[in-house]
Amino acid sequence: MARAPLSLTSKPPSPLPTFTPLRYQRRPFTTFRVSATTVTTTAMPDHHPSLEITGGAVDRFLPAFKILHLPYKPFPIVGWNRHIETIFAAFFRKFPEVRYSRECLRTKDDGTIALDWVSGDHRSLPADSPILILMPGLTGGSQDSYVKHMLVKARSKGWRVVVFNSRGCGESPVISPQLQSASFTADTCHVVAHVSSRYPKANIYAVGWSLGGNILVNYLGKECNNCPLSGAASLCNPFNLVIADENLRKGFDNIYDRALRGDIEDEYNVQVGLKPKTVREYDEAITRVSLGFKSVDDYYSDSCSCHVIQHVQIPLLCIQAANDPVAPIEGTPREDIKGNPNCMLIVTPQGGHLGWVAGDEAPFGAPWTDNVVMDFLEHLRKDASKPQAPSISGEDVQQGSEGLYQAKV
Fold first, then answer.
1. Given pLDDT bands bounded at 50, 70 and 90, which one contains residue 198?
2. Using CA atoms, how far apart are residues 382 and 166, in angstroms rounded to an integer?
3. pTM
4. Which whole-number Å values give the CA distances from 174 to 25, 167, 191, 270, in the listed order?
5. Which of 163, 289, 302, 402 has the most CB atoms less than 10 A away?
6. Which residue blocks in 43-185 are alpha helix, DSSP H?
């Protein structure tokens, strides 16, 4: 986002001289206040021009970030090409060691949602510790490297973290016709309500990636008057699924379409969608039917989170990569984000899809976005007040004292 240059002049009482205007191009500005006896300085936050930063909440949230004044520097070679970066991050990024305790929720339509909590945190953390719900992308789950890195980063700051595995994802069973989809937010409502009832003294936040980010923003927009979350972050969100669908059918990006289709085919052995060539074919045969849409285009149009982001009423940070091959930047609703006083958008020049191989931990460590997201969440944590928790009926939950089983991943 372009920034108009500032020049500040201080005129102290006579006979002290007048200071000339100061200009800086890439560093935070400093204003000088001079009196006869004291000199004080006040830092003014700024961001590096390699980053596009916009949104109605920029003035409100920009001071919270510690690294946005630095240039975005992709890791050499890996970060110079969006396809190489996307593939590298998916296959070569390290997997932090995390031990989970699984809790399964039974939904009203007899579906199953798997929540993976960090084993032992229920005993070691205070009841009012902030809670972070992680929502992976399409076919993703608690085993994915980007999910684990975010989890480890949050736990290092005293957060309680739970991974929300959608139906059929993260090795959770499929026992109902309803599957994971971009427009279905009932499961998100159920999970948020359950987590809030389990820890009524804690503030709850959420982070979603890719399709998980789209579902999260849809939830925030549709439940804007009844959302108990204290803040959220959306990363690599396709926002406009019509544009994303068109993009996936072009050139090399078709590889991602086929890769995502392959994961779906392995998860669901449904006769009609047994051999889909693309995600679109699968959505035409299975997803739009289960949701009651007349066509796959109707499903995509109705599922776009860009249509509801204007209604979001809690702090929301959106981070996109300008060269994302799966979530094209053209679908990002910049104007609606600018018009919403609760939203802020950061666009990096590189990053690929779920890549962001940059920063001190590159190339094998946590993505560049993790520190940015935690700066945002920690800023919200300081001033948060506990919202009223939504109600949830006890018969909808099936769990043991700590979960149904433990798994070391």
1. very high
2. 30
3. 0.79
4. 55, 6, 17, 11
5. 163
6. 58-61, 82-92, 121-124, 145-155
Could you tell me the end-to-end alpha-carbon distance of the chain, in angstroms, rounded to an integer?
A: 41
Q: Is 381 helix (H, G, I), strand (E, B) or coil?
A: helix
**CA max distance for the chain:** 88
Strands 39-44, 29-34: pairing kind? antiparallel
Query: DSSP letters along 294-348, please?
Result: SSHHHHHHHT-GGGTGGG--S-EEEEEETT-SSS-GGG--HHHHHH-TTEEEEEE
Q: Which residues pair with residue 346 across a beta bridge?
A: 53, 319
Q: State phi, psi for 206 to the nearest 5 degrees.
A: -145, 150
Kindly report, residue by residue over 155-173, the tens digit of the pLDDT: 999 999 999 999 888 888 7
Q: Which of the pair, 108 or 139, is modelled with greater confidence?
A: 108
CB 357 within 8 A of CB 75: yes
Residue where the block lists tokens 């066509």:
295
Answer yes or no: are the C-beta atoms of 234 and 211 closer than 8 Å: no
Contact assessment for residue 340 and residue 310, using Cβ atoms and an 8 Å cutoff: yes
- Residue 85 — pLDDT band, cuts 50, 70, 90? very high
Share of the chain above pLDDT 90, in %: 61
Q: What is the pLDDT of residues 290-307, one digit of tens each?
A: 666 777 787 787 889 999
Looking at every residue in the chain, the average pLDDT score rounds to 82
Mind telling me the catalytic residues? 210, 324, 353
Please give the DSSP secondary-structure letter assigned to residue 36: S
CA-CA distance, 175 to 112, in Å (whole number)?
A: 7
Per-residue confidence band for 259, with pLDDT thresholds at 50, 70 and 90: low
Dihedral sign for Cα atoms in the order 166, 168, 174, 176: positive
Residues with Cβ within 8 Å of 327's Cβ and at least 6 positions away in sequence, in order, are 210, 236, 237, 238, 239, 244, 320, 321, 353
Residue type, 347: V
